[in-house]
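User: Sequence for C-8 sterol isomerase below. Tokens please.
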Amino acid sequence: MKTQSVSKNESQTSSTPTPSIPSLKWSAITVFVILSWVLCQWLDGIKSQWYVLDPETLHQVAKSALASSNDTAGAIQHIVSNLTETYPSSRIRLNTDVNEWMFNNAGGAMGAMYIIHASITEYLIIFGTPLGTEGHTGQHTADDYFYILEGEQWAFEPGQLKSARYGPGSVNYMPRGTVRQYKMHEGCFALEYARGWIPPMLPFGFADTFTSTLDFLTLYRTVRITLREMVRNLLIGKI
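Assistant: Structure tokens for C-8 sterol isomerase:
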């Protein structure tokens, strides 16, 4: 009887299914995805605590630059000087080398840019072209403010039958996720500010190098300067 009972128990034990390795693998992946989503949601909810720059303040700085300068170069110098006087280097690091320009190709549009600030949650650049350009804005993980310093920008979204037009002193605001076609006419330059998650925006700025321009020297310079500025800010605790 004992032998039969033992054999019966062994038979029941051996017939109990055990989780397969693929099942454990997918369970682990599911848990990882859920935890990653929760973490991203939490970080997205607190990202504003790392913002230093302010959209309205930047708009006022841009307008004061136009009022006190006779040309775009003077306006840019005014902006940089104003920001460095307003924000201490212990809070935010700014790139004051106004000669550090580089080409930028993104969404089919081409211009030149000067990076004033780059961190994980904010960037501030001067972007424009004396020749004119147009393209796709891209869909981004940050709110974008485009303060026109010179010239005129046109933009529209699907369903709009007329373009919105932005001249000197005005701002083209694009909430996160907004997609537009835009055109910058000859001699258009702007101060562009983005606040949100900046790293996911970078592939859009790099993609045209691999699909059309093959200008890897400019890509290297862009990556080097962007990372340099982000690291400089991380070292002072500016996320």
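The CA atoms of residues 42 and 164 lie 35 Å apart.
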